[in-house]
Protein backbone atom coordinates (compact mmCIF):
# COMPACT_ATOMS: atom_id res chain seq x y z
CA UNK A 1 0.00 0.00 0.00
CA UNK A 2 1.50 3.34 -1.07
CA UNK A 3 0.93 6.40 1.13
CA UNK A 4 -0.66 9.62 -0.14
CA UNK A 5 2.71 11.38 -0.38
CA UNK A 6 4.11 8.70 -2.70
CA UNK A 7 0.98 8.81 -4.83
CA UNK A 8 1.08 12.60 -5.14
CA UNK A 9 4.76 12.59 -6.09
CA UNK A 10 4.10 10.08 -8.86
CA UNK A 11 1.13 12.08 -10.17
CA UNK A 12 3.21 15.27 -10.07
CA UNK A 13 5.73 13.66 -12.43
CA UNK A 14 2.89 12.67 -14.75
CA UNK A 15 1.47 16.20 -14.67
CA UNK A 16 4.88 17.47 -15.85
CA UNK A 17 4.35 15.63 -19.11
CA UNK A 18 6.22 12.46 -18.22
CA UNK A 19 4.94 9.17 -19.61
CA UNK A 20 3.56 6.51 -17.28
CA UNK A 21 6.36 4.23 -18.42
CA UNK A 22 9.13 6.67 -17.44
CA UNK A 23 7.50 7.48 -14.08
CA UNK A 24 7.10 3.77 -13.40
CA UNK A 25 10.79 3.11 -14.13
CA UNK A 26 11.91 6.00 -11.90
CA UNK A 27 9.67 5.21 -8.92
CA UNK A 28 9.37 1.43 -9.16
CA UNK A 29 5.57 1.73 -9.12
CA UNK A 30 3.57 -0.14 -11.75
CA UNK A 31 1.92 1.81 -14.53
CA UNK A 32 -1.43 0.24 -13.64
CA UNK A 33 -1.20 1.64 -10.09
CA UNK A 34 -0.28 5.13 -11.28
CA UNK A 35 -3.08 5.05 -13.83
CA UNK A 36 -5.60 4.09 -11.12
CA UNK A 37 -4.45 7.00 -8.94
CA UNK A 38 -5.37 9.41 -11.72
CA UNK A 39 -8.97 8.40 -11.03
CA UNK A 40 -8.81 7.95 -7.22
CA UNK A 41 -5.80 8.94 -5.16
CA UNK A 42 -7.08 8.08 -1.67
CA UNK A 43 -6.47 4.48 -0.58
CA UNK A 44 -9.62 2.66 0.50
CA UNK A 45 -9.91 0.96 3.91
CA UNK A 46 -8.63 -2.61 3.90
CA UNK A 47 -12.09 -4.04 4.61
CA UNK A 48 -13.94 -2.11 1.92
CA UNK A 49 -14.56 -3.66 -1.47
CA UNK A 50 -16.84 -2.96 -4.38
CA UNK A 51 -20.01 -5.05 -4.37
CA UNK A 52 -20.02 -8.11 -6.61
CA UNK A 53 -22.26 -7.57 -9.66
CA UNK A 54 -23.28 -11.25 -9.56
CA UNK A 55 -24.34 -11.40 -5.89
CA UNK A 56 -27.19 -8.88 -5.85
CA UNK A 57 -30.90 -9.62 -5.94
CA UNK A 58 -30.73 -8.81 -9.66
CA UNK A 59 -27.33 -10.10 -10.89
CA UNK A 60 -25.69 -7.86 -13.46
CA UNK A 61 -22.64 -7.93 -15.70
CA UNK A 62 -19.22 -6.56 -14.67
CA UNK A 63 -18.88 -2.79 -15.04
CA UNK A 64 -16.12 -3.10 -17.65
CA UNK A 65 -17.24 -5.97 -19.91
CA UNK A 66 -14.38 -5.49 -22.39
CA UNK A 67 -11.77 -5.89 -19.63
CA UNK A 68 -13.73 -8.85 -18.26
CA UNK A 69 -13.77 -10.56 -21.67
CA UNK A 70 -9.97 -10.20 -21.89
CA UNK A 71 -9.53 -11.47 -18.32
CA UNK A 72 -11.81 -14.44 -19.06
CA UNK A 73 -9.50 -15.42 -21.92
CA UNK A 74 -6.43 -15.09 -19.69
CA UNK A 75 -8.07 -17.15 -16.94
CA UNK A 76 -9.11 -19.97 -19.26
CA UNK A 77 -5.54 -20.12 -20.57
CA UNK A 78 -3.05 -19.57 -17.76
CA UNK A 79 -5.21 -18.70 -14.77
CA UNK A 80 -6.43 -20.47 -11.68
CA UNK A 81 -8.64 -19.72 -8.69
CA UNK A 82 -7.81 -21.32 -5.36
CA UNK A 83 -9.53 -21.18 -1.99
CA UNK A 84 -7.89 -19.48 0.97
CA UNK A 85 -9.07 -18.89 4.51
CA UNK A 86 -12.37 -17.35 5.64
CA UNK A 87 -14.07 -17.72 2.31
CA UNK A 88 -11.42 -15.77 0.36
CA UNK A 89 -10.30 -16.95 -3.09
CA UNK A 90 -7.11 -16.11 -4.95
CA UNK A 91 -7.05 -15.41 -8.68
CA UNK A 92 -3.63 -16.05 -10.22
CA UNK A 93 -2.67 -15.39 -13.83
CA UNK A 94 0.84 -16.55 -14.74
CA UNK A 95 2.64 -14.32 -17.26
CA UNK A 96 6.13 -14.82 -18.70
CA UNK A 97 8.78 -12.21 -17.85
CA UNK A 98 9.43 -11.86 -21.59
CA UNK A 99 6.15 -9.96 -22.05
CA UNK A 100 6.06 -6.95 -19.64
CA UNK A 101 3.23 -5.32 -21.60
CA UNK A 102 1.11 -8.43 -21.11
CA UNK A 103 1.76 -8.31 -17.35
CA UNK A 104 0.59 -4.68 -17.26
CA UNK A 105 -2.54 -5.51 -19.27
CA UNK A 106 -3.32 -8.47 -17.02
CA UNK A 107 -3.01 -6.37 -13.87
CA UNK A 108 -5.23 -3.66 -15.35
CA UNK A 109 -7.90 -6.23 -16.26
CA UNK A 110 -7.91 -7.71 -12.75
CA UNK A 111 -8.20 -4.22 -11.26
CA UNK A 112 -11.16 -3.52 -13.54
CA UNK A 113 -12.89 -6.69 -12.29
CA UNK A 114 -12.25 -5.98 -8.56
CA UNK A 115 -11.24 -2.28 -8.43
CA UNK A 116 -10.99 -2.04 -4.64
CA UNK A 117 -8.93 -5.20 -4.10
CA UNK A 118 -5.17 -5.24 -3.95
CA UNK A 119 -3.31 -6.74 -6.91
CA UNK A 120 0.24 -7.98 -6.42
CA UNK A 121 2.91 -9.64 -8.53
CA UNK A 122 4.55 -12.78 -7.18
CA UNK A 123 7.92 -13.36 -8.82
CA UNK A 124 8.76 -16.86 -9.93
CA UNK A 125 11.52 -18.26 -12.12
CA UNK A 126 10.96 -16.79 -15.57
CA UNK A 127 7.44 -15.59 -14.85
CA UNK A 128 5.16 -13.50 -12.65
CA UNK A 129 1.91 -14.62 -11.01
CA UNK A 130 -0.41 -11.61 -11.05
CA UNK A 131 -2.54 -12.27 -7.96
CA UNK A 132 -5.63 -10.79 -6.34
CA UNK A 133 -7.80 -12.05 -3.47
CA UNK A 134 -11.58 -11.71 -3.32
CA UNK A 135 -14.55 -13.65 -1.97
CA UNK A 136 -16.26 -13.22 -5.32
CA UNK A 137 -13.95 -14.80 -7.90
CA UNK A 138 -16.16 -17.94 -8.16
CA UNK A 139 -19.16 -15.66 -8.78
CA UNK A 140 -17.36 -13.88 -11.61
CA UNK A 141 -15.72 -17.04 -12.99
CA UNK A 142 -18.11 -19.97 -12.44
CA UNK A 143 -15.74 -22.18 -14.46
CA UNK A 144 -13.77 -22.51 -11.21
CA UNK A 145 -13.79 -26.04 -9.84
CA UNK A 146 -11.62 -28.82 -8.45
CA UNK A 147 -8.89 -30.28 -10.62
CA UNK A 148 -7.42 -29.21 -13.93
CA UNK A 149 -9.58 -27.44 -16.50
CA UNK A 150 -9.06 -30.09 -19.17
CA UNK A 151 -10.40 -32.75 -16.80
CA UNK A 152 -13.77 -31.05 -16.29
CA UNK A 153 -16.45 -29.42 -18.41
CA UNK A 154 -15.80 -25.78 -19.31
CA UNK A 155 -18.87 -23.91 -20.54
CA UNK A 156 -19.79 -20.23 -20.42
CA UNK A 157 -22.83 -19.00 -18.54
CA UNK A 158 -25.36 -17.12 -20.73
CA UNK A 159 -24.30 -13.75 -19.27
CA UNK A 160 -20.64 -14.58 -20.03
CA UNK A 161 -21.48 -15.59 -23.59
CA UNK A 162 -23.27 -12.25 -24.07
CA UNK A 163 -20.08 -10.44 -23.00
CA UNK A 164 -17.91 -12.53 -25.33
CA UNK A 165 -20.35 -11.93 -28.20
CA UNK A 166 -20.14 -8.17 -27.53
CA UNK A 167 -16.34 -8.13 -27.06
CA UNK A 168 -15.02 -11.11 -29.05
CA UNK A 169 -11.62 -9.66 -29.90
CA UNK A 170 -10.84 -9.00 -26.25
CA UNK A 171 -11.67 -12.64 -25.50
CA UNK A 172 -9.47 -13.88 -28.35
CA UNK A 173 -6.67 -11.54 -27.23
CA UNK A 174 -6.80 -12.98 -23.71
CA UNK A 175 -6.60 -16.54 -25.04
CA UNK A 176 -3.71 -15.71 -27.37
CA UNK A 177 -1.88 -13.79 -24.63
CA UNK A 178 -2.14 -16.82 -22.35
CA UNK A 179 -1.86 -19.95 -24.50
CA UNK A 180 -1.14 -18.59 -27.96
CA UNK A 181 1.59 -16.99 -30.04
CA UNK A 182 2.32 -15.25 -33.31
CA UNK A 183 5.33 -16.70 -35.10
CA UNK A 184 7.08 -16.42 -38.46
CA UNK A 185 6.84 -19.73 -40.24
CA UNK A 186 8.83 -20.68 -43.32
CA UNK A 187 8.90 -23.10 -46.21
CA UNK A 188 10.67 -23.38 -49.56
CA UNK A 189 9.40 -22.95 -53.12
CA UNK A 190 10.75 -23.51 -56.58
CA UNK A 191 10.98 -20.15 -58.38
CA UNK A 192 12.33 -20.31 -61.95
CA UNK A 193 13.92 -23.64 -61.14
CA UNK A 194 15.61 -22.29 -57.99
CA UNK A 195 14.48 -23.26 -54.50
CA UNK A 196 13.92 -20.17 -52.35
CA UNK A 197 12.93 -19.69 -48.75
CA UNK A 198 9.47 -18.24 -48.15
CA UNK A 199 8.41 -16.79 -44.76
CA UNK A 200 4.90 -16.00 -43.55
CA UNK A 201 3.29 -15.08 -40.18
CA UNK A 202 1.06 -17.53 -38.37
CA UNK A 203 -0.95 -17.68 -35.13
CA UNK A 204 -1.13 -20.74 -32.89
CA UNK A 205 -3.36 -21.45 -29.90
CA UNK A 206 -2.72 -24.55 -27.80
CA UNK A 207 -4.83 -25.88 -24.94
CA UNK A 208 -5.46 -29.34 -23.49
CA UNK A 209 -9.16 -28.65 -22.96
CA UNK A 210 -11.37 -29.49 -25.92
CA UNK A 211 -14.06 -27.20 -24.46
CA UNK A 212 -11.70 -24.20 -24.39
CA UNK A 213 -10.54 -25.02 -27.92
CA UNK A 214 -14.19 -24.91 -29.05
CA UNK A 215 -14.78 -21.58 -27.33
CA UNK A 216 -11.78 -20.22 -29.24
CA UNK A 217 -12.73 -21.62 -32.65
CA UNK A 218 -16.44 -20.74 -32.28
CA UNK A 219 -15.43 -17.13 -31.62
CA UNK A 220 -13.04 -17.15 -34.59
CA UNK A 221 -15.91 -18.40 -36.77
CA UNK A 222 -18.12 -15.51 -35.68
CA UNK A 223 -15.29 -13.09 -36.49
CA UNK A 224 -14.71 -14.55 -39.95
CA UNK A 225 -11.23 -15.86 -39.15
CA UNK A 226 -10.21 -19.01 -41.03
CA UNK A 227 -8.47 -21.67 -38.95
CA UNK A 228 -7.48 -25.31 -39.05
CA UNK A 229 -6.30 -27.81 -36.44
CA UNK A 230 -2.55 -28.42 -36.51
CA UNK A 231 -3.41 -31.25 -34.10
CA UNK A 232 -6.42 -31.87 -31.80
CA UNK A 233 -5.13 -29.39 -29.20
CA UNK A 234 -3.38 -26.87 -31.45
CA UNK A 235 -5.24 -24.41 -33.70
CA UNK A 236 -3.48 -22.62 -36.55
CA UNK A 237 -4.45 -19.39 -38.33
CA UNK A 238 -2.27 -19.06 -41.42
CA UNK A 239 -4.34 -17.65 -44.30
CA UNK A 240 -3.06 -14.23 -45.29
CA UNK A 241 -6.37 -12.37 -44.88
CA UNK A 242 -7.10 -14.01 -41.53
CA UNK A 243 -3.61 -13.30 -40.20
CA UNK A 244 -4.03 -9.66 -41.27
CA UNK A 245 -7.33 -9.51 -39.37
CA UNK A 246 -5.70 -11.02 -36.28
CA UNK A 247 -2.81 -8.55 -36.59
CA UNK A 248 -5.26 -5.65 -36.60
CA UNK A 249 -6.84 -6.72 -33.32
CA UNK A 250 -4.25 -8.90 -31.56
CA UNK A 251 -0.67 -8.66 -32.85
CA UNK A 252 2.38 -10.24 -31.24
CA UNK A 253 2.85 -10.34 -27.49
CA UNK A 254 4.83 -7.44 -26.08
Strand order of the largest sheet: 1-2-4-3
**Amino- and carboxy-terminal Cα gap:** 28 Å
User: What is the averaged pLDDT score?
Assistant: 90
* Helix and strand sequence: HHHHEEHEEHHHEEHEEH
Q: Give the biggest sheet.
A: 4 strands, antiparallel
Proportion in helices: 40-55%
Descriptive labels:
single chain; 254 residues; Endonuclease I-creI; alpha+beta; four-stranded antiparallel sheet
Give a written overview of the molecule.
By secondary structure, this protein is α+β, with helices and mostly antiparallel strands. Among the domains are: 1-43, no CATH class; 173-249, Endonuclease I-creI, CATH 3.10.28. It has ten helices and eight strands. The chain has helices at residues 4-15, 20-27, 31-37, 65-78, 100-113, 137-140, 158-166, 168-179, 210-223, 240-249, and strands at 79-83, 89-96, 119-124, 127-134, 180-191, 194-206, 228-231, 234-237. A four-stranded antiparallel β-sheet has the order 1-2-4-3. The protein has a four-stranded antiparallel β-sheet with strand order 5-6-8-7. β5 (180-191) and β6 (194-206) form a beta hairpin. α8 crosses α9 (210-223). It is globular, with a radius of gyration of 20 Å. It starts with a helix and ends in a 5-residue tail after the last helix.
Q: How is the secondary structure organized here?
A:
Layout: H1 4-15, H2 20-27, H3 31-37, H4 65-78, E1 79-83, E2 89-96, H5 100-113, E3 119-124, E4 127-134, H6 137-140, H7 158-166, H8 168-179, E5 180-191, E6 194-206, H9 210-223, E7 228-231, E8 234-237, H10 240-249
Antiparallel strand pairs: 1-2, 2-4, 3-4, 5-6, 6-8, 7-8
Helix pairs in contact: 4-5, 4-7, 4-8, 7-8, 8-9
